[in-house]
Amino acid sequence: MAFFGKLFRTIIGGEEQSGNTVCEVGISKFARVHVVSREDCLVLYGPTDTNQYELLLQQPVQNSLSKAYSLFRMADQDDAQIRFVALREVIPLLVRHIPHEIINQQGLQTVCDLVRDHQTWTVAHIAAYLGYATLFFQADVVRQANMADIEMKETPLHLAIQKGHIEVIRVLMEKNVTIDSVDVKGNSVFHVAATSSEAIIKVN
């Protein structure tokens, strides 16, 4: 019950998280640390020698097999597992499809921050927000293209228009995504487009 209580508080943004800076770490120090959870390239360890739970992306860092990226460090196991669950829905897919854009400190930091700040976004929302048009040719992303997030009711198309990502908009329109959805403020994609550039308005 405590876990689900923390899940609810985290979803509504009631608890501040710590240790969110993505950084390089040596893998060897985790050799004797317990694995709490594992999903694809993500491994949650803990407690470490500093009594924290740490999530590693186990991909070579600058061609070095002895290093990995640490995505977060948390003192509370339940909080760490909640964040792990959120990131496992996004990071492995991005690593698989756009590794060069993602497997670096800046790319991972951007995605981790988005997942933390927008907890009901799908990977399609993140792809639209960041302008990764090629991801919408992947079946596991396209199937989320019409989903509105729970908090703001925005679809990936809403976000692509807001950010001015014309190629993403074009691809989404070619995929025949819905254009009837409205966000919590009652804005359709047409309302959002009307406040954007002429180039976006002209996208068919």
UniProtKB/TrEMBL annotation:
- Entry GO CC: mitochondrion
Reply yes or no: does the keyword Hydrolase apply: yes
- Gene Ontology biological process terms in this record: positive regulation of ceramide biosynthetic process
Name the UniProt record assigns to this protein? Uncharacterized protein
GO molecular function terms listed in the Swiss-Prot or TrEMBL record: calcium-independent phospholipase A2 activity; long-chain fatty acyl-CoA hydrolase activity
The ANK repeats extend over: 152-184
Q: Which UniProt keywords are given for this protein, alphabetically ordered?
A: ANK repeat, Hydrolase
Q: Which SMART domains match?
A: ANK
Gene3D superfamilies, per the entry? Ankyrin repeat-containing domain
InterPro entries named among the record's database cross-references: Ankyrin_rpt, Ankyrin_rpt-contain_sf, PLPL9
